Amino acid sequence: MTESHSLQVLNPGQMEIRPLERPAIGDHEVLLRVAACGICGTDRHIYHGTFPATLPVVLGHEIAGWVVETGDKVTKVKTGDLVSVNPNIWCGRCQPCLEGQAHLCMNMKALGVDLNGGMAHYCAVPEQLLYKMKPDTDPLKACLAEPVSCVLHGIDRLRARAGCRAAVFGGGFIGQLMLQVLRLQGISEITLVEPVAYKRQIAERLGFRTIDPVHEREALEQLSELDVAIDCAGAGDVLAQCIRMTKRGGRVLVFAAYPQGKEVPIEPYSVYRKEISLIGSFTYPDTQLRAVRMIESGQLLLDPLITAVDLEQAMSLIKGEADSTVLKGVIKFA
To answer: Of 62, 128, 231, 295, whose CB is crowded by the most CB atoms within 10 A?
Structure first.
């Protein structure tokens, strides 16, 4: 078997680049030569032990690659196809699956979490998880179909409609995607609330209004009567701010992946009295085809958000040791 290199979390706080044999595949699986794999906050949580995972595991659930081998019963794709991956494997038997909410599967397994993922030169993937991409699609963008799909599902749940007023709290990669998708939805007024200057600068270059919540307190206090507010920060009192600034009958989306067990204070009276809808969003059931079309069409401006890195640089980013101005690190494989 041909060996490749992979980025593996062995135990919480222990991560190494290790050789990995080229995986064998079953009848309904394909072998991908990974072209690109995005680095997600979930990868950091797995490394720190704050997100449940089956260790040791090769990280990486934002995957794009070329099909190099197919199982005997694979019919959907062929050798040479460029594909993106939905990393979630649903059981199909539990109550959420039977009720049409497979993304809430009680027995879900995920590539890069419970099974070896895409931070390796080769990855075995079940055929049903694959989405064909146009062959000329930039793999650094193709691998982002997974986070774009998550954002689309969140905004679908939020029911953000044309003409609404919206604010996004947190200007990381997901927050920047939220801004762009909201604009494509026809939202008339969109504000990013973000304390880090370079993140605000990226959003401003893309045409969005921003507020520095540390030094522009007056502007922040004037941000009120929002139709929708989105928590992409997962820190401090952001969720309470979202509730406070949302109008009566408005909606708040909790999109940030708060660490398991973390609690934050909110004022339930405001939720009750203003009849605010407090909405959660976890992964996605059915939005990846739309995400693929958006990436292929160029509707999303992804170049300003992406930095190509190698495995060594990826390990530093996950540990928090690398350049803090990298908004979205994407591992590029030769």
So the answer is: 62
